[in-house]
Amino acid sequence: ASNLNLGSLSCQMSSIQIALGIGLLVGVIIFGKLFCSYICPIGAITEWFGKLGAKMKIRMEMPNFLDRPFRSLKYILLFVTLYFTMTSSELFCKEYDPYFAVANLFGNADIVIWFAIISVAITIIGSIIFRLFWCKYLCPLGAISNIFYNVVPVGAFIILFIITKTWLFDISYIWLVAGISLIGLLTEVIFKRSFLSPATKIYRNQETCTSCGICEANCPQGIELTKYKKVDHIDCNLCTDCVYSCPIKQSLKVADKKPTKYLAPIAVVVLIAISLGFADNIELSTISERWGNFDSVANMGIYEQGDLKNVKCFGSAMSLKNQIDDIPGIYGIDAYAASHEVRIFYDADKLTERDVKASIFKPSKQRIQNFKPGDFDSLTVYKVGIDKLFDNIDFVSLVYALREDKGVYGFETEFGEPVQTTIYYLADKTNPEEIESAILKDEIEIKKKDGVEKLDLKFGIRESGDIIGSISADDYQKHMFQGFSQSFNKYSAYNPSDLSVLIYPMPEADHPMLKRQIPYLMSHISTNDGIVRLATTWDNGPKALIFFSPELTSLDSVKAYLSSETLHVTFTSGEKKAVKNPFKSKPDGVVKSAQDVLEQLN
């Protein structure tokens, strides 16, 4: 759905899942609801709960006056689920899906806990009291299956939608979803039967059937089979329990001609095999984006890059797209999360493949281990080219590899072929040969809370690197420090002479986890109109710089905002939230004029 509406796949979707979905929909049209009868875990579990309810003698059939209205609920839920999935490229059903919630012990970040708890409770309690409550009244996949049970009106509507969108006017795919959901709702609530499809149905031989009721007692759906010659009830999913239970041979049979009671399970296996084979040869793009003057570029080049392990879902693919879409000469990207590949479209008259490759590379800095002032005076600087070092995941793997050498303190990368890597090490503890040996290991073991994990390394070194000098310990710290700077509250409208700067030690600004929360502090202090900029820098240690207007706010007020126990944060989505202040540094320092501070920073 999101691929049609946004040209992108949700993070959790893959070609395999889509191929299986298409295969099972084909199965619905030809054979019946095979997913419901042979695969669905919720259906199996709720059937067990139903048997428990029957043993407790509290299970009942839904009253007729409620049955049909309640059947509309799953179509409403289907539309809501598809709507939010189509407009966000995220699987909305994961927020409430009872099976997903239980399988993840309610611990997955995609789960909205109160949605999931309510969903699980309704599913369990409903299934104990009413026969297959989730399947009949709430399941969105059941709604999709029933829609394709009556494929003729749905197919006609899809054709009408395509004609309208192609030749009349551009209509949103949301209307397609709304239309087929409404058709499915009406056909089920009004008729409660299938018509032309599925092609395969269960037939009852009226001449040999004794109406003993054994088949009805064994039907999980509670269908009154003895009323049918051809079972076209909307709830029949071709599980064939009735066929297996019938004591009179061929009184119930699957298909009227050349019947076999094993047709449904055989069809399940065949459809899954065909779908997996199809998915193995075809991969849908996670995103397919074009921009600028794409259609007017005369000499469009296509650069293909594989093994980008950081491209693993919609979000990371869009992050890469946002990184390159403002580069002159680049006009589009197709990203494939499953295979970690991208295809980038560029003007070959303006850019080379090397230019494109450089545009998707992100230089990085990383400390391997920390040290205290006075531990040593300087570090040796060694530069080497490393193959197969390109994205963030490769970068993390290199961090783990270099941690094996206790003499390495940090490294940084810059684009090149191979990637140029500058490594900082203590000559008393290691040397270039030992460093290269750590990089070229085939695998290393990483200790984690739940045990030891083996990490495969595939790095290569084309030729030995060079020692290019040394760097003092303080200059190294300053060089590796990754500062933060953000202005707000019309900072640019002020002259530097009108502003003051509070400078104080802030160790959290160099903490791997806490520095990620500096934007929270920035959002909080921006609610004071007199504070206009937050920056961090290294000056014999990490320091915070708070720019403020003395005319609009006092120093005491600035310190009070910084020391607040609670940060009032406004997120980019507009959501406002109060979070505990993680920064414990006391804002006690010096106050200087902004003019002097800016001269020093420059």
Short description:
This protein is an alpha+beta fold and 602 residues long. It is 40% helix and 20% strand.
Tally of helical runs: 22
Beta strands, count: 22
Mean pLDDT: 89
Share of β-strand residues: 15-25%
SS content category = alpha+beta
* Alpha-carbon distance between the two ends: 51 Å
Spans of at least 5 consecutive residues whose pLDDT stays below 50 are: 1-8
Report on this structure.
It contains 22 helices and 22 strands. It is α+β, with helices and mostly antiparallel strands. Strands 8, 9, 10, 11, 14 and 15 form a six-stranded antiparallel beta sheet that branches. Strands 16-18-19-17-22 form a five-stranded antiparallel beta sheet. Strands 4-6-7-5 form a four-stranded antiparallel beta sheet, covered by helices on one side. The protein is elongated, with a radius of gyration of 32 Å.
What is this structure's SSE topology?
Elements: H1 2-6, H2 15-30, H3 34-38, H4 41-55, H5 64-88, H6 98-103, H7 113-129, H8 133-137, H9 140-149, H10 151-168, H11 173-191, E1 202-204, H12 214-218, E2 230-231, H13 241-245, E3 252-254, H14 263-281, E4 287-290, E5 300-305, H15 314-324, E6 330-336, E7 341-347, H16 353-359, E8 365-367, E9 378-387, H17 392-403, E10 408-414, E11 419-425, H18 432-439, E12 443-448, E13 451-456, E14 460-461, E15 466-472, H19 473-480, E16 485-487, E17 500-505, H20 518-525, E18 531-538, E19 542-548, H21 555-563, E20 566-570, E21 576-580, E22 590-593, H22 594-601
Antiparallel strand pairs: 1-2, 1-3, 4-6, 5-7, 6-7, 8-10, 9-11, 9-14, 9-15, 10-11, 12-13, 16-18, 17-19, 17-22, 18-19, 20-21
Helix pairs in contact: 2-14, 4-7, 5-9, 5-11, 9-11, 10-11
